[in-house]
Amino acid sequence: MQTKHTALLLVDVQQAFDHPSWGARNNPQAEQNIASLLGHWRARQMPVIHIRHFSVHAASTLHPSHLGVAYKTEAMPITGEKEFTKSVNSALIGTGLEDYLHQQKIDRLVIVGISTDHCVSTTTRMAGNLGFTTYLVSDACATFDRRRADGKLFLAEDIHQIHLCSLDGEFCTVRTTAEILSAE
């Protein structure tokens, strides 16, 4: 798996998700696992791609006028790593990412990021549908508690696990950080 044709795709690992307005979150170790994967990719000089969300809504913590659009410390790009910005959930819509992957002959993606049920899931689904061999790292992504319109609360961990279950085997292969790091 670990070749120049396998990219680590970091989706929306941004400071905005530390804002209390997002609510309770699962996987508090996600950023640490992302940092471990990023170090592994860098040490092997494999492709790393950063995706950053720029909301079109001025009040959003992810709007370019807010500090929250900055990358989290654990996921700061370095020189030579490709960056794309998006304003929709999928990193493959309107970004040039798909063309870049084909140009670089990258056919395998290892996806991490925030949030599991929004941009991570949408990007994973599209990548699988576009024919990329796709891995989603279960403990290197996270989401938040959500309330339905009627007020019913759904816990972040339940949402996270349901999305992983729905994606695995259909759009991607779900693996842990340890499994990805030990795969050769």
UniProtKB/TrEMBL annotation:
InterPro entries: Isochorismatase-like_dom, Isochorismatase-like_hydrls, Isochorismatase-like_sf. Keywords: Hydrolase. The keyword Transport does not apply. Gene3D superfamilies: Isochorismatase-like. Residues 6-156 form the Isochorismatase-like domain. GO terms for molecular function: hydrolase activity. It holds the Pfam family Isochorismatase. This is Cysteine hydrolase. It comes from Undibacterium flavidum. The lineage of its organism: Bacteria, Pseudomonadati, Pseudomonadota, Betaproteobacteria, Burkholderiales.
